[in-house]
Here is the input.
Amino acid sequence: MSVSPLLTVEGMTVCVPEKERIGGGLGDLNLVEDLSLSIRPGERVALVGESGSGKSITARAILQFDPHLRLSGSIAWEGRELIGASRHTLRRVRGAEISMIFQDPMTALNPVLTIGEQVAEPLLVRGVSRKESYRRAAEMLDRLRVPQAKERLRSFPGQFSGGMRQRVVMAAALIAQPKLLIADEPTTALDVRVQEQVLDILEEQSRELNLAVLFITHDLAIVAGLAQRVAVMFRGRLVEDKQVDELFAHPEHPYTRGLIGSVPRLDADPDVRLKTVADYLKEGSAA
Amino acid sequence: MNGDVLLTVEGLSKRFGHGKRAYQALEDVSFEVRQGEILGLVGESGSGKSTIIRCLVGLEKESSGTIRYDGIDPTHPKHGELERYRREVQMVFQDPYSSLDPRMTVRQIVEEPMLVFGGFSERERRARVDELMDIVGLLPEHLERYPRHFSGGQRQRIAIVRALVVGPRVLLCDEPVSALDVSVQAQVLNLLKDMQRQLDLTVLFVSHDLAVVKYLCSRLVVLDKGVIAESGTVAEIYEHPKHPYTRSLLEAVPVPDPEQERARRARRLEKLAALS
Here is the structure.
């Protein structure tokens, strides 16, 4: 495919300046180093790594949520440079062009605002009329298979289950028709069967709306059927970035092999001891 | 001895709230845990699996039903029985970020149970702590640090040391790996398996992850909305799940294989299309 990428991150380094370090370590600390990644329209890319590997920081850096972090390198969004962009530009990009959903749907929603207010908000702040915003909110919830969407607009988050809440969060993220959705561990807090529904909906929306998705997770199993490409992060660096089939068939980095191999599987013999990621890394450095 | 029943739960029911707003969290749940086995307690959130554990340790009071542990009825204990029960039945919680006191050092945390029960000299306490820290793969210098200095997997190992330090026979684990990354999950699972063998522990392992349960457990009980859907050996249930709820749980376990996953999704969408 020769479609030009939506998002091109090149040589991005995210640094915590010494005076901002919590706990007061010495010197500047690089959380992400020299990371390059691109996403084409409609492409689903998974960013995988364990906690502390820098995957969430990478996602947050793209939208520049943390002003105290120092970014260098380049983040180009449809040809425009986002590093050093004005607040005005960033506000236009956030929510309308790049949207983000988070791990915990319980805390992402405001408990004292109705579902309708929260889903319609991205339109309301952009000057769409109240009536039209609510109509589209109901439509969006319906798309995401929230039953009786129109009536549920008046409900509060507390009246929804975890899976339903994550759909509400997704509706709010998608209502302004972004081209890229960043999903930071959106199903970690959910039960397996609900997780499956949410993933299916995410994939369906990505197909129907030609929506690019950057899916962040620590679990390779859940992105195996969802992503077209997988990028693996380890200790702040990208160690592998491949098409999904290629990655599972020929994982190169010992860490990637560890992530694939350390997951308990239903089709595995329980008497064979699980190898941990540390085992794979040891093998890798011995070889 | 393998096979003797150590813990019996019979007709356990738990109701939260009163009247119209009451919620039946558990209804007539009965199962046995045998000496030296790892029994899996499986279900989704709201199925009542944590409530069972909380009733067992006395954090909740059951509405009806009985619990028997090695001749002890912990809800109506005779003199001294409750102390023995509490010593021999220990618990590991789900979230190692909130179950360790941030203002205590690791040494204070893991020695506390011995101080509570008493009867351990200082030398004994040190020896037990050193031995267990070594078994779970933590270093002696870690003892003087605080929980915040540790990763999730290390914290869960500290919690396991705390539970094992008074020499329990039964370990109740409430989703001990669900808050952990897959990369450290394997470590904690292997550790639990090793501990169970070395110390001849009996483990009640609560989980929503059927792949984890298959790796660890010999028998399992599947809970659906507070009622037992089915129970049996791992072989029976994984080969021939009888209850539709168990089947749907098994089908929802993701596989780290792109082709299988895509095929699974296609099957699901077909089913959905057939329904509508």
About this structure: The two ends of chain B are 54 Å apart (CA to CA). The longest helix of chain B spans residues 258-275. Chain B has a mean pLDDT of 91.
